[in-house]
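Holo model, zinc ion. Inputs:
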Amino acid sequence: MIIDYDVHHGNATQEMFYEDPRVLYFSIHQAPFYPGTGLSTERGAGEGLGTTINVPLPATTGYETYEPVFRQVMSPAADRFNPQLILVSAGFDAHWKDPLGGMYLSTAGFAKLTGIIIELADYLCDGRLVMVQEGGYDLQAMANCAATCVNLLLGDDAAVDNLGPAPTTQWRINTDVLIAELRRIHKLTGYRMRNAPKPDIERLRREVKGPDA
Ligand SMILES: [Zn+2]
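Output:
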């Protein structure tokens, strides 16, 4: 499985594995933006249909949208695919300080997203995870994110961050609608991760009926 959080869509990576069911490619990227590919309807073809997942998001999207996409779209898709290895296209150009990208991720945001990926690798494939540095056009932001990721891979969750939080977004995406639509497109509606805790049906029943039932 390849996880690509570089701000650009990984058009070449997608192209390589578009018809290959052995590789799940997941990309979250700014759109509209160079190179113009990576619509959510691009899902692979032939035997590879369903093993490409694209999440295009408008400029100034931040962690509050990335996180639910990672937890509720990427994670269950990975769980279903059951990868032997996770590769990360670790571009840091979605950092708010980046002069090319227009996204609002902070170094702390990148750290938390990378933490989700590390958890996923631990749970799905015995921690087999390779991160490859890609984009990043603000040297300070890139250095902070790269150092933070190395810390995380070494088991230390300290973020190296002297740039602070992203600017406040003027508007917010309705993430509930976004997640529901992405889960519909990728046939994940109702999917339960294998390690999800079993629902306590009795407790739910009591809550619905009230204490006197
Ligand atoms: Zn890039």
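The pocket of zinc ion is lined by residues 6-8, 91, 93, 134-135 (CB under 6 Å). The longest helix spans residues 63-81.
Archived with the compound record.
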